[in-house]
Amino acid sequence: MDQLELRRTNKALAESKRRLETITETIPQMVWSARSNGYNASYNHRWYEFTGVPPGSADGEGWDRVVHPDDRDRVLSAWQDSLATGEDYEIEYRLRHHSGVYRWILGRGSPFRDSQGRIERWYGTYTDIDDWKKAEASLVDGEERYRALIEASTAIVWRASKDGSIIEGWGWETFCGQGPDAYRGEGWLDAVHPDDRERVMAAWRETLASPKPSANEYRVLHRDGQYRWIHARVVPLKGTDGSIREWVGTITDINDSKQAEAELWRAANHDSLTGLPNRVLFQLRLEQAVAEAKQNNGAVSLLLIDLDDFKDVNDTLGHDAGDALLKETAARLSMMTRDCDTVARLGGDEFAVLLVEPFRLNHATGLAESMIKRLRQPYSYAGRALVTRASIGVAAFPDHDSEPVELMKDADIALFRAKAEGRNRVTAYSPAMRASTEQRLTLGREVREAISRDCIVPFYQPKVCLSTGRIIGVEALARWRHPTKGILTPDTFGAAFDDPELATAIGKRLIGKISSDMRRWLDAGINPGRVGVNLSCAEFGQPDLAEDILRILALVKVPTDHFEIEVTEKVLLEGRSDSVSATLEKFQRHGVQIALDDFGTGYASLAHLKRFPVHHIKIDRTFVFDLEQDAGDEAIVAAVIGLGRSLNIQVTAEGVETEGQAQRLRELGCNNAQGYLFAKPMAVSELSSYFSNNIRPSA
């Protein structure tokens, strides 16, 4: 090659080198080159700008001073491997930035070979990948954190393809024991409770058809062999075009909360003692049964049951015995009904039975009669045989009413009639009963108003000695000063005394007025003798009856020997005998005499004379009315007078209206009499005048 050709060649090489250096300096990467032995020959200015080291200071082996100490050995080892093998060099490591922090770079290098394949030089680049590495680390950290959350969570997590087939799940195998091959696709459905599958699949198909977040609750077979309630939630994941890419969801075990919820519901809807539905649940089932019967032209029968002797059991044997009776009643009623019927305890000693198709009113009445007999059968408690009775009211749809509330009223009215007619019986409702009940309710409302207006007052009827004509005392009788009807007797409002609340209110009001009247008479120098007051059966149900009356007498300073309690045989027959006896004995101990009113009209008069403290017998007016004409009545009156004489008990004949009756009573040896012949019942003002203008009472 001549000199000219050589110059041209060198010039071309210089131009090529300059062009290469220019290109190297303009590209964004850091560019480097090294000799075949690995000795670094050059870096472009990008490298020096990145690292901040003086230009030229990295030639040779000085470049590794800016490599992170923790990465240096790894980097050198990889470079030596590439030098030894001649393979491309690629590695990620941290390089010190001119800011003083280390940044991740990607180092790459490739060998340049001659025509014989020998390595003449190495060329490579460094690319700043720090931002990417941080994003990657953040993503990895997020994925690790997400998986850690999944593993730490009690929830089961799953993914499904856009068609709804399960792809994978975390925690499902641990929960129910199904392996991945078993639950993928629709295999998970095998673990769902058979009763829930159709509902669950219907909800899942609806979610797939209308993609949106949804939730459901159902039962899944747990690996312990028991079904447990779970809460499943599913959310669609959409692509950039808005289409469903896949589904993700969670499953949470809610069995404990479901059981707690069920227990709360049961506590709110069932009686804690008997386990039967309570009033709330019974009312709901009644409403449902009536609605279904209306729709299907069916029938519903309602039985209200009240235990007649429950209070006696509680009072005599204690509440434990009462509880045992209630549980025994619940068991017997449940045994006599079907699964489709409902037996409930409404409260206290009141039960209810709801009968549905095909039972009709006649079937319900027949079943009620059987229940009466079954409940009467003795049962054993604490070594004692106990017997109880019950009263039952029956109402039915469509026979009586079409609304649940009205049916309850009908059955309650029938129950009230059953108890009023003697108890221990079944009574079916009739419209006439409602009219009677409405009259009773109207009467109760009017009597309450009369009490509040102080219109219930005592009238007094004198009792006289037949032999002397002297007044021996008076009987206080309840009267109602009606604003439009005038003075009303108990024949008009006597039904109010069947209501314990009204009877007690009337009694207290009368006792207060009577005591005040007695005090005024005594202050005026009038001795009224003994003032008799008739107490109702309801009043004897008050535990502190004797204490209350004795306290009133003491308050107004009326001596107890001026006071007499009149008791009808109805009280002794229908009341709680032990309680009545204790009350009468307490009166007797404090000087209050006891009179047995309407004697002879009951069923056990002689037994009552023996059992209760009786000082005074009042012969009922029905025996006095025909005394002069009816030999039977005369014989009865004579027998009662003789009985009183034998027992040293005072005898008074009631209803004496003629002189002939009075004369015959004198002849028979009767001591005292009371009736229209001597005086009609009169107001306190009239009686005061009567005392002043007629015979003064004996001391």
Automatic annotation (TrEMBL):
Ranges for domain GGDEF: 298-431
Domain of life of the source: Bacteria
EAL domain ranges (all copies): 440-695
SMART domains in the cross-refs: EAL (SM00052), GGDEF (SM00267), PAC (SM00086), PAS (SM00091)
PAC domain mapped to chain residues: 89-141, 214-266
Signal peptide: none
Ranges for domain PAS: 16-86
Pfam families the record matches: EAL (PF00563), GGDEF (PF00990), PAS_3 (PF08447)
SUPFAM superfamilies, sorted: EAL domain-like, Nucleotide cyclase, PYP-like sensor domain (PAS domain)
TM ranges: none
UniProt xrefs under InterPro entries: Biofilm_reg_signaling, EAL_dom, EAL_sf, GGDEF_dom, Nucleotide_cyclase, PAC, PAS, PAS-assoc_C
GO MF annotations, alphabetized: catalytic activity
Name the record gives this protein: GGDEF domain-containing protein
Species annotation: Microvirga aerophila
